[in-house]
Amino acid sequence: MNRALLEEPFPKELVRTRKGSFGNELSYVEAAHYVRRLNDAFEGQWGFKILGHENQGTEVVVHGMLEAGGQIKHAFGNSSITTNSSTREVVSFGDDLKAAATDALKKACSLFGIGLDLYGSSPSQSNPSPSKRPPLRAVQDDGQNRTKSWLMNKKASGRRFSTLVSAAQILEQHILPVLGELYVDAITGQDVRDWLTFSATKEKKKRKLKKKTKKPRKKKPGGQIKKSKRYASVSVNGWLRLLKNVLRDAVADFGLDRDPTIRIAALQEDPKEDASKSLTADELRWVLGAAKALVEKKEIPAIMYTILLVGFFTGMRWSELSALEWKDLDEEGPCIRIRRGQVRQHVSGTKTRKTRTVAIPEFVLEELREHRKAQIRDQVKGLEKGIVFPSRVGNYRCPSSLVKALPKICNEAGISKTISPHWMRHTLNNLMRQAKVDRIVLRATTGHAAEEMTEHYSHVSLDEKREASAKVVQMVGLEPGRKGVEKG
Q1: CATH code for residues 3-125+132-204+230-254
Q2: DSSP 8-state assignment for residue 173
Q3: pLDDT class of 480 with cuts at 50, 70, 90
Q4: What is the pLDDT of residue 229?
């Protein structure tokens, strides 16, 4: 390996600049020059492979692996998805995917020392070489300066892919734009405090929507213009925890003298309202009745009622409910076998990595049968994939698909609460507790299985689960064949 060649700065005539986040000017070099540098240093004996990618709606994230000189470097690359300004249709997803892959290649190259001079000013002769003290931006891709990056080591330790992608997004959007160009041993506690203060006052970026006729900005009562929203302190504290993890690993792995995040206190979080995130038995009956009424009025799609019915009486996590497939339904039980979950179209095992069986009432089974008949009759997209609750384009449904329907349903039911998909799980948990369902049966149904209790849960029979479900049905006041009761 020709290390001197790898770490040699690119000629100035090859370096270009572009505007980055927060008005910063970023230096970059075209990908072709990275390829030539790899060819020269390794005599063409190197390879780059895309291990996976994820479409997140506004951007695509690529996981790339660069192998050269007997070493392997992993990196995430990303690129915004280009859409038509008038129709909002994707122009060329292939080009966006290619750009993300190129970004991943460049970041992986930086782990071999290629292009490190682009991440900050050249260090003085008295300082360690950049390869020993990389910028924080390089730590995102290789926190341990070994064959696996910091994020990849987290994946190896059992972290879910969706968690890693979220961490990569936080780094790219909220941490690296401010601290990414600083060398890890040059970051001070004051730098972290300044970043924390900036993050606490930063306004959320507005999503670009389809251009329509311009409307005046909404004003608050009294003539005041509504202010832009800032990020909640609990969100900023989550970013701080991630930054602490990255820097602490960097301190240990690069042999640095100090951890700049020591004594950095988290922001004081806003007090939360002491409100239960679940419905009472009466409220659940009203909600189901209201949903059925709105379906009959054709104000919400019929699939919304089926989702609520299955969700409230199984207590599935949204990731599990949205990943449900028809092969998971056992009509003889009747029961549902919960085998998988999905987040942002990435399918994996359940959150606890355990498969479980949930008993369902007969009227829920009957509703699922009717839903299946409607799917076949209308030949909906996603039918060939076997997805029980597909989106309009045939993919796995995201929780935001309920955003419009839930407020309508609550308003129709006369409930002032603002509910979310996770309330379905909380509600079943709470109703089973009120019905004095055995704790072991409750946890086996909802999947709250602690490692030391797994053996106990494995012995809970389907009959016990069916009996627990019947107690909830009785509390709510629903009987087989009755699909919702009006408030009265």
Answers
A1: 3.30.390.80
A2: I
A3: very low
A4: 77
